[in-house]
From TrEMBL, chain A:
Transmembrane segments: 7-27, 100-121, 133-158, 170-190, 232-254, 274-300
Membrane-topology annotation of the record: Multi-pass membrane protein
An example Gene Ontology CC term for this record: plasma membrane
Family to which this protein belongs: Belongs to the binding-protein-dependent transport system permease family. OppBC subfamily.
Protein's recorded name: Oligopeptide ABC transporter permease OppB
Compartment annotation: Cell membrane
Record keywords: Cell membrane, Membrane, Transmembrane, Transmembrane helix, Transport
InterPro entries the UniProt entry points to: BPD_transp_1_N, MetI-like, MetI-like_sf
Occurrences of domain ABC transmembrane type-1 (ranges): 94-297
Keyword Transport appears in the UniProt entry: yes
BP terms from Gene Ontology: transmembrane transport
This protein's record includes keyword Glycoprotein: no
Organism of origin: Stenotrophobium rhamnosiphilum
UniProtKB/TrEMBL annotation, chain B:
Region forming the signal peptide: none
GO annotation, cellular component aspect: plasma membrane
Main location as per UniProt: membrane
Protein name: ABC transporter ATP-binding protein
Gene Ontology molecular functions: ATP binding; ATP hydrolysis activity
Cross-referenced Gene3D superfamilies: P-loop containing nucleotide triphosphate hydrolases
The organism's taxonomic lineage, starting at the top: Bacteria, Pseudomonadati, Pseudomonadota, Gammaproteobacteria, Nevskiales
Amino acid sequence: MLRYAFIRLLSAIPALLILITLTFFMMRAAPGGPFDRERDVSPEVRAKLEQAYHLDESLWKQYGRYLTALSQGDLGPSFKYGDRSVNELIAVGFPVSLKIGGLAMLLALLLGGALGIVAALKQNGVIDYGVMTLAMVGISIPNYVFAPLAILLFAVTLGWLPAGGWNDGALSNLVLPVLALAAPQVAYIARLMRGSMIEVLHAPYIRTARAKGLSERVVILRHALRPALLPVLSYLGPASAGIITGSVVIEQIFGIPGIGRYFVTAALNRDYTVVMGVVIFYGVLVILFNFLVDLLYGVLDPRARPQ
Amino acid sequence: MSLLNVRNLSVSFNTADGVVRAVTDLSFTLATGETLGIVGESGSGKSQTAMAILRLLARNAAVDGEVLFDGQDLLRLSAQDMLKVRGQRIGMIFQDPMTALNPHLRIGTQLAEVLVSHRGQSWQQAMAESARMMQAVHIPDATARLQHYPHELSGGQRQRVMIAMALLCRPQLLIADEPTTALDVTVQAQILRLLVELRREFGLSLILITHDLGVMAEVCDRSLVMYGGRAMEQGPCRALLTDPVHPYTRALIASRPRLDMDVERDLPVIAGAPPSPIERIFGCPFAPRCELAFDRCNRQMPDLETSAGRQCACHAVSLCKK
């Protein structure tokens, strides 16, 4: 088991290296540089700045320098937020992003799972069609459309919730961003859960469970739920990636000071180190999440346990 | 009084392609302690008959008739009361033990939950009793096996687990739906021997569904031959095998391969294919493939003729004229 975990984590290193390399060179291939937007910079000052950040060196040298620092856990200084390191920016922004991302994931799992199960049990009934229609809508509407519409309805028209801002993560400030972030995932998980539950309910072992005279509740909770959760579980990897990319947009729309927002600003400003840092951080996060999902798979399915 | 009395049972399914008639007007009885073999080829309605008795049919099924079990019509029981019949008074085992056990639960859980549900026993008690039942079906290391998952057991052992599971509550009736079809031949024999042994030990009445005449000959007292969802012939197993009356039974027995036969050249087959269950058939379902068929066979289903413990439904042959 430990050996398996070790090998899995080791195999993440090449994936991260590819990610780092691609991001590094793609960032540099983009036109412009971090100091293009500064006004009235004399050529001397500019040269000094570039020298200070080693931007005057060859790309390969910079790449090597970055990798060396990275191997010591140093993501470098931000070009834009002068006195702060990328590590600091992530340390400040991540708890905020984690809060809305984690809540969105939880909501997606619980609500999506519950809706999917109910729809499966009432297959082809009114509830089923209702849930599936809603899910179709949820999947089809992108979050950058959903979020402003939600703001318009709940903040502007009804005045129930604030239109944006963080306010130290107060509940009322969390509701709309979490909803907007979770909506497509809720919809997707509901569809996934419904499909797999319907399939499992046709399995021979469910017929056996019924032939044993078990109540419908026991049949579903003890016999059907676990196998039906497996496809949902394998979707959690992509779902985490979806929530991360979603958070980049949602944090921007709602003015939430998470790393997603730093990322957008950094990308526009060619703040190389911040972009790199956030991409690497997200990469590690997604890899870790997929690893956790694989471990959970073994918990749910005895046949998938590493020998 | 007979333990099970099925009267005019009909099962049909409403599908997008139309109404599928799986069983039509089927009647049979089973005495206490008796073993009835239901034979027929795939699609003859034998499995659906079993599922109808336990009311485990798919939601789109329509069932008509009566299933009197110990004088009670199971088809008219409430869903709640039916739960007390399944697993407790009627046990059932299925064809493929590979898929009939839940791959995600330990063997022990799947056994013990029967006792927990029906008898209200504690899990600990139920586990101990499950281990005893595992011993009764000759699974070595029974207590240790309870901790295993189905995929860690061989096919034969899984079928033994299925049998143990079905017998935990000491049911009066065991329905075995092709219990040996998915197993190796040597394992088949072991499982059949086990069923015969348990039948005596537990005083079981047994319905054995099979398409294997050899299996039926070994285990059953009486046989029911089904074709196209209808009873063709019924009678004591030995008489039916040695002296079949109905043209279908005769053809079925004639088409058994024998060791002294060159199967590629000599194996007799019944020409044609079984009727589509979706067509409405007014006559005998076997008529299109029957050598003895005449006009009336296609128009009108013959009645079951009863004589000296045997029954046969055929216009062309008669039990008495034989």
